[in-house]
Design a protein that fits this description.
Largest sheet: none
Order of helices and strands: HHHHHHHHHHHHHHHHHH
Structural class: mainly alpha
Radius of gyration: 19 Å
Shape: globular
Bound molecules: alpha-Diphosphopyridine nucleotide, magnesium ion
Distance between the termini: 15 Å
């Protein structure tokens, strides 16, 4: 199998950054009006040239801060680069110290308790604080999934992708409904990196992997304990397949079946659906936007946990389409975009070396 090029690595991290920074502007709104979103995006484009003014084409500068999604993604990447492999103690330390340095990035309500315990010198097992969350049930939030892209950008073997996606998520999310979402998101990025995979093959492969991932005892018992049917991620992937066979799917149906919430189960499948749906043109989104832009616009238009759904879909779309579809004016509007480009290059080198 040919090795994916650097452009896909840069696209992945840039897409993730764009999704977070742009999505964060609308996070938590139950309804996002498309005209308002499109007019906001227009404001990111370079100002028209002025008579005797500055050169045209200069972007309006870094202005959109990233949130917890990117802060934690960066810790994942920085840990992998520093250790040249997954190291749970180092990664946990980076999560906690990053939180301590900048606690106001918009972290989930409960996950901050994990960071506080990880910062204590008494903590000897870095997975223990996550296991204690929610009276021992563990978190099923989307925080493990939102930050996972670095794993498939380092490990090319699919068993490694699953194993380290799970371990990286378990540092904060001990419920299988949380870490299985991270596995699904990591698999989606892994598949998106491969050359020329069709929509159908992409989805079929995700379904067959997740049917296996979700069949273990803990996944079955966690799903039952929360009142879900067995194999809940796999079932949603099959719903996505149904949606993609229809000529149009109303937003209300997407929200009802897939969701726009902070649970991994109500956001990771939504991100995957958004990516696959936006391979095709959308009558509501102007044609001059490319597929990566359309994916991010569509995610944000769903409302709810917009930064997190858009960052996950942005990572997948960026890995699939590569950096050619990342508009410079959008990228340059995001905090720390240059560092993101450097990290992508280092990840690419590590991936090739392994
Ligand atoms: P988390 O582990 O705190 O989970 C997020 C939330 O999910 C929790 O606060 C609970 O409400 C709920 N939850 C998770 N597990 C359970 C459970 N077992 N029982 C009952 N409720 C549960 O943090 P996370 O890292 O998963 O959260 C990620 C999300 O938080 C992302 O959307 C991220 O952007 C951030 N976020 C921040 C804001 C904000 O403005 N501060 C708003 C929404 C989301
Ligand atoms: Mg966030
Ligand atoms: Mg080790
Ligand atoms: Mg969010």
């Amino acid at each position: 199998r040919p090795r994916p090029g650097l452009a896909r690595f840069r696209g992945c991290l840039a897409g993730a950054l764009l999704g977070d920074c742009l999505g964060a502007v609308f996070e938590g709104r139950s309804v996002v009006k498309l005209p308002e979103l499109l007019s906001f995006l227009k404001g990111l484009e370079p100002a028209p040239p002025e008579e005797g003014g500055e050169a045209a084409g200069s972007a309006r500068g870094e202005s959109l801060p990233y949130t917890d999604d990117t802060a934690m993604s960066r810790s994942v990447v920085q840990s992998l680069l520093a250790k040249q492999e997954f190291d749970e103690v180092d990664m946990a330390k980076r999560f906690a110290e990053e939180y301590k340095k900048e606690p106001n990035r918009g972290y989930g309500m409960a996950v901050v308790n994990v960071f506080k315990k990880l910062l204590s010198p008494k903590c000897s097992d870095v997975f223990e604080p996550a296991r204690a969350q929610f009276n021992g049930k563990g978190s099923y939030g989307n925080g493990g999934a939102m930050r996972v892209a670095g794993i498939p950008l380092v490990y090319s073997d699919i068993q490694d992708v699953k194993k380290f996606a799970k371990l990286s998520a378990e540092l904060t999310h001990a419920n299988s409904l949380g870490y299985n979402g991270a596995i699904l998101q990591a698999l989606a990025v892994h598949l998106a990196l491969q050359e020329g995979l069709s929509r159908e093959t992409f989805l079929e492969q995700l379904i067959s992997h997740m049917e296996h991932v979700e069949a273990d005892d803990k996944s079955l018992s966690d799903a039952r304990a929360l009142g879900f049917e067995d194999l809940p991620f796999s079932r949603r992937l099959k719903k996505i397949k149904e949606f993609l066979e229809l000529s149009s799917v109303p937003k209300a149906d997407v929200l009802f079946e897939l969701g726009n919430g902070i649970a991994a189960l109500r956001s990771v499948p939504t991100a995957i659906y958004s990516f696959l749906r936006c391979m095709d043109a959308d009558p509501d989104i102007p044609e001059h936007y490319n597929a990566l832009q359309r994916t991010i616009i569509y995610c944000i238009s769903l409302g709810g946990d917009t930064d997190t759904i858009a960052t996950m879909a942005g990572a997948i779309a960026g890995a699939y389409y590569g950096e050619e579809q990342v508009p410079p004016s959008w990228e340059q509007s995001c905090e720390a975009f240059q560092e993101t480009q450097r990290m992508a290059k280092s990840l690419y080198e590590l991936y090739c070396q392994r």
